[in-house]
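Figure 2 data, in text form.
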Amino acid sequence: MITTKHLRVSLLIAATIATSGCNPFKKGTPKTPVVGQRISVLTSEGDIQVDPATLALPMTLPAAAANTEWAQSGGNAGKSMGHLALGNVLGTAFTVQAGRGSSLTARLASEPIVVGDRVYTIDTLGTVRAFSTQNGALQWASQTPSDRGNEASLYGGGIAHENGRIYATNGLGYVAALDPRTGGIVWQVRPGGPLRGAPSVANGAIYVMSQDNQIFSLKEADGKTNWSQPASLEIAGVFGSAAPAIAQGTVVAGFSSGELNAYRYENGRQVWQDTLQRTSIRTSVSSLTDIDADPVIDSGQVIALGQGGRMVALELTTGQRMWELNIAGISTPWVAGDWVFVVTDDGKMVCIARQTGKIRWINQLPQFERAKSKKGQIDYSGPVLAGNRLIVAGSNGVIVNVDPATGSFQSQTRVRSGISLPPVVAGSTLYVLDDNATLYAFR
């Protein structure tokens, strides 16, 4: 997706938090190089500002709830997990190598998933692994389908779980169903072009997005195609693709063209369409319209964020906009109760009232490992709301805890390599997969 052959451009996006005007991070380890051509993508979100009335409101969050699984990208089919249970003080439960990580020619694209007593990963060679959630012991490793001579293009896929099956995609365009106990392949299909993202699963179907901007609905039982729908083809965009969100019989998908489309799950009939693109933007990303952040469906509302400089809330049934903000980003927003939390691509963390779109707080995350020289750009993934704090992970290997009421820095920890994938919480355990494909569990 990010090579000339695949007609994609891989972007290096900056994002994250500062408190009291100083950078809490020390110099980190060198970042894994990002695949593809680098272009400047820093945006200016100077037209968003805090609303005093919203700031004065009490911050009430849902009570933290224990979740036993994180079954697909975003946690569940709707990409809305609320407030998760997690201890206040975490120690390292285990650290284990999970295959081959990111490099100059390949990049990890999918967070781990957690189901039962196992945590599953997929590496840049398209190998799915199962580890014990207790001690990290390897249970099995299974290679997704490939073509002889094209193994270098396997990277970029993802994994999901539903109804006793692991569903995996890879960069060669294969979708495979695996037995979660053994890793054995139950069936495999190749519905379209290369796949650069994780599948979503609901309603007895697997939903996958192809590099050439098509969405496919496949039968869980055998992988046969239920329906497919195309969107406009876009040459340039961010590496990866957003996983569709599914709820109330509707599938919401974001494309690299900036289109946000809603479909009926049973037949693919388009219900409504929107475009997340600003009419004017004072940045070098003006030519990019990609939606790389998963849409979120919560309580009949769709929250979506695009790289083209637009964040929106829409009614799920009609697609009518409830509010919009001039915000650009590629990390999936987090919805909890009356609030939406998001990291923008110019390094800001923002708290938004979900009903009005008014902003409670904006805090700048450190953008550089060496602030004075503005070198060592830091990119962030997340947030996740767990244990009464927002958790974001940085490309310098730092995991940061943030106060959801104020956006202020609370604490941090560091792992050995950079992190480009969002943290995962399940079973009161925090899982992080770094760019070297090292899996960390904290509890």
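Caption note: The chain has one helix and 34 strands.
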